[in-house]
């Protein structure tokens, strides 16, 4: 399976699994972008991410963490 920016929920789940000690409410977008791109299954163009998709990933990660 390869992850694209549109796979917001799956990205959030993988971030929650790989960074269990991180509170997603305090992650800035620069760090979030880097972590998404570093996910083993991520295979999309890193330049295609905008603020809206990063906000959606962060919101889904917060929801997943609760």
UniProtKB/TrEMBL annotation:
InterPro entries: ISC_FeS_clus_asmbl_IscsX, IscX-like_sf. This is FeS assembly protein IscX. One of its GO terms (cellular component) is cytosol. One of its GO terms (molecular function) is ferrous iron binding. It comes from Phytopseudomonas argentinensis. It holds the Pfam family Fe-S_assembly. It comes from the Bacteria. GO terms for biological process: iron-sulfur cluster assembly.
């Amino acid at each position: 399976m390869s992850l694209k920016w549109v796979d917001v929920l799956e990205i959030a789940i993988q971030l929650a699994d790989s960074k269990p000690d991180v509170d997603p409410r305090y992650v800035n977008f620069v760090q979030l972008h880097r972590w998404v791109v570093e996910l083993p299954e991520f295979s999309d163009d890193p330049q295609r991410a905008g603020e809206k998709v990063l906000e959606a990933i962060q919101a889904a990660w917060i929801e997943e963490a609760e």
